[in-house]
C-alpha cells in the first residue's frame, strides 16, 4: 500500500491539507489511493537547508520508531517514506486532543487507556518524549487513544549507557507527566497529590534541556 508513491503524486491524490507548511514545519497531506487514506508528513516544500538537515533527520527518526512499533495497537501503521523527506502513515479517524479544551470530559477509561499505551511502548524500549503536546494524541472514532508524532522519540538501545541513559529515564518520566497534564486538564479530581507534586516539580535538568531546545529552535528559525 502506497509503496510506489512519489512526491509528485501528492497534489494529485491529495484530499485535504491537514496543515500548511511553515519555515520549520512540514506540510501534512491527507491523501487517498484505491479507497485507502493516508497522512503524509512532507518536508519537501521546506527550504533546501532545513529540508536536508532537520527534515531528513526527523523523517529518518520517525520511520525508525514506527518500524519498532509494528503491530502496536495505539499508533498508526507506517506505509513507508518518500525520498527520505516524507513519511506516509495510516490515517487515524478521529480528533486530536489539541481540539479539546479544559473542561471537556474524555470518554470513560480513555486516560487509563493512554496510560496502558505508554506502559506498552515503554515495555518495547521506546520513550515518546513529546507527549505533553495534546495534538500528538488522537481520540479515535472508536473511542480509543492513538499516539502520533514519534520524530523526537528515543529508544533504550540507543541510550543504554551512562550518562545518556539518564536522558532516556527523563523522557520516560516526561511521558508519565504528560498523562498527569491531561488529567489536570480534563479530570483534575483524578490527580493524586503525589502526581500533582511531581508534575509541578521542574528539575534544573528539565529547565536546562528546555533552554537548549528553545535556543536551537530560534537558531533554526533564523537560518531558514
Ligand atoms: N496519522 C494521522 N491520522 C490523523 N491525523 C493525523 C495523523 N498524523 C498527523 N495528524 C494530524 O496532523 C497534526 C500534526 O501532525 P504531527 O505528526 O504531530 O506533526 P508535527 O511534528 O508537525 O507536530 C496532528 O496533530 C494531527 O491533527
Ligand atoms: Mg505534533
**N-to-C SSE series?**
HEEEHEEEHEEEEHHH
Which structural class is indicated by helix and strand composition? Answer: alpha+beta
Helix content: 40-55%
Strand order of the largest sheet: 1-2-3-5-4
Q: Examine the coordinates and then state which fold CATH places here, giving the name of the CATH topology of the largest domain.
A: Transferase(Phosphotransferase), domain 1
CATH class of the largest domain: Mainly Alpha
Shape-level CATH architecture of the largest domain: Orthogonal Bundle
Query: Going by CATH, what is the homologous superfamily of the largest domain?
Result: Transferase(Phosphotransferase) domain 1
How many helices? The count is 6
Describe what you observe in this structure:
40% of the residues lie in helices and 20% in strands. The protein is α+β, with helices and mostly antiparallel strands. The chain has two domains: 7-90, 2-Layer Sandwich (Phosphorylase Kinase, domain 1); 94-223, Transferase(Phosphotransferase) domain 1 (Transferase(Phosphotransferase), domain 1, Orthogonal Bundle). The longest helix is centred in the last third of the chain and has 23 residues, at 164-186. The chain is globular, with a radius of gyration of 18 Å. The model has no long low-confidence stretch (mean pLDDT 93). Residues 18-19, 25, 28, 39, 41, 76, 89-92, 96, 98, 135-136, 138, 148-149, 151 line the site of adenosine-5'-diphosphate (ADP).
Amino acid at each position: 500500500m502506497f509503496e510506489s508513491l512519489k512526491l509528485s503524486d501528492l497534489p494529485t491524490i491529495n484530499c485535504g491539507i491537514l496543515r500548511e507548511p511553515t519555515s520549520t514545519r512540514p506540510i501534512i497531506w491527507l491523501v487517498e489511493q484505491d479507497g485507502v487514506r493516508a497522512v503524509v508528513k512532507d518536508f519537501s516544500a521546506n527550504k533546501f537547508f532545513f529540508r536536508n538537515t532537520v527534515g531528513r533527520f526527523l523523517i529518518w527518526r520517525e520511520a525508525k520508531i514506527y518500524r519498532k512499533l509494528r503491530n502496536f495497537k495505539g499508533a498508526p501503521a507506517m506505509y513507508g517514506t518518500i525520498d527520505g523527506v516524507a513519511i506516509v502513515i495510516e490515517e487515524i479517524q478521529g480528533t486530536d486532543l489539541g481540539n479539546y479544551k479544559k473542561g471537556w470530559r474524555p470518554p470513560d477509561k480513555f486516560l487509563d487507556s493512554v496510560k496502558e499505551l505508554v506502559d506498552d511502548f515503554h515495555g518495547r524500549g521506546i520513550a515518546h518524549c513529546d507527549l505533553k503536546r495534546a495534538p500528538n494524541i488522537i481520540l479515535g472514532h472508536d473511542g480509543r487513544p492513538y499516539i502520533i508524532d514519534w520524530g523526537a522519540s528515543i529508544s533504550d538501545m540507543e541510550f543504554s549507557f551512562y550518562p545518556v541513559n539518564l536522558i532516556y529515564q527523563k523522557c520516560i518520566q516526561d511521558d508519565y507527566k504528560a498523562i498527569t497534564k491531561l488529567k489536570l486538564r480534563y479530570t483534575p479530581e483524578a490527580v493524586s497529590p503525589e502526581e500533582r507534586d511531581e508534575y509541578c516539580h521542574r528539575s534544573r535538568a528539565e529547565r536546562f534541556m528546555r533552554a537548549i531546545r528553545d535556543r536551537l529552535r530560534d537558531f533554526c528559525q533564523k537560518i531558514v
